[in-house]
Amino acid sequence: MAGTSRHDRAMTMNAKRQLLTASDPLERLRLQCLARGSAGIKGLGRTFKIMDDDNNRTLDTKEFLKGLNDYGVNIEKDEALKLFQLFDRDGSGLIDFDEFLITLRPPMSNARKEVIMEAFRKLDKTGDGIITIEDLKGVYNAKNHAKYQNGEWTEEQVFRQFLDNFDSPYDKDGKVTQDEFMNYYAGVSASIDTDVYFIVMMRNAWKLN
Questions:
Q1: Which of 26, 8, 175 is nearest to 99 (CA)?
Q2: Phi/psi of residue 96, each to 5°?
Q3: Inter-residue long-range contacts of 115-121, CB under 8 Å, 24+ positions, other chains counted
Q4: pLDDT (tens digit, 9 = 90+) per residue, 143-198?
Q5: Nearest to residue 159, comparing CAs of 115, 123, 129, 185?
Q6: CA 192, 195, 198: angle at the middle one, nearest 5?
Q7: 130 forms bridges with which residues in the sheet?
Q8: Do residues 95 and 88 make contact, with C-beta atoms less than 8 angstroms apart?
Q9: Long-range pairs for 56-64: beta carbons < 8 A, 24 or more residues apart
Q10: DSSP labels, 61-124
Q11: Half-sphere exposure of 71 (CA within 13 A, CB side)
Q12: If you count DSSP H runs as helices and E runs as strands, how many of each does the chain have, helices first?
């Protein structure tokens, strides 16, 4: 439903191959995230969010370096510092990590962004900008899931597993924000060449009109 494992495998292999020749620090970080699959960039975002103790959505150099290290990004310190300077546009010693993640996402056309947001709005029944288990009831039919049918999982567990597709493996909270949804599909998008195919896939997956 979310992103096919076949696309994920193709993207992971492609990213690893490109990493062998990529020299630009931003491109190398993007490829390292994509090499982890669709959820790679979103997972890095979650790592930074956990480190942002005062919730000001900025990171200093020390937090930035620790976040990359905690997420297991293979990067030299001087390369990481170059990246930090690239984002610290006003020289304040702080970077806005929302802006950082948006730049890190693989480029997407407006048509792709629009269909992703259409899917998000369909799932976000309450319109509060966060998808929860409550939102999914009535939109996603848990009773068709094999593990529900064989009695292994409850309806609640099926919904939770579905949301975990979009959550970071390190911080599953059962809630999916607009940014997390977009970060996830930016990863899926990177594995699909044409807008037409991506849009058809999204419309079929989410039964969009």
A1: 26
A2: -85, 115
A3: 115/198, 115/199, 115/202, 115/203, 115/208, 116/181, 116/182, 116/185, 116/202, 117/178, 117/182, 118/202, 118/206, 118/208, 119/181, 119/202, 119/205, 119/206, 119/208, 120/178, 120/181, 120/182
A4: 878 888 899 999 888 888 888 777 655 566 788 888 888 888 887 887 788 899 99
A5: 123
A6: 55
A7: 177
A8: yes
A9: 57/96, 57/97, 57/98, 58/94, 58/95, 58/96, 58/97, 59/94, 59/95, 59/97, 59/100, 60/93, 60/94, 61/93, 64/95
A10: HHHHHHHHHHTT----HHHHHHHHHHH-TT-SSEEEHHHHHHHHSPP--HHHHHHHHHHHHHH-
A11: 30
A12: 12, 4
Q: Which amino acid is at 24?
A: D
How many angstroms separate the CA atoms of 88 and 95, rounded? 5
**Backbone torsions φ then ψ of 94, nearest 5 degrees:** -135, 145
Crossing angle of helices 178-190/97-104, nearest 10°? 20
For 73-94, write each residue's pLDDT tens digit: 988 999 999 999 988 888 889 9
- What's the pTM value of the predicted model, to 2 decimals? 0.70
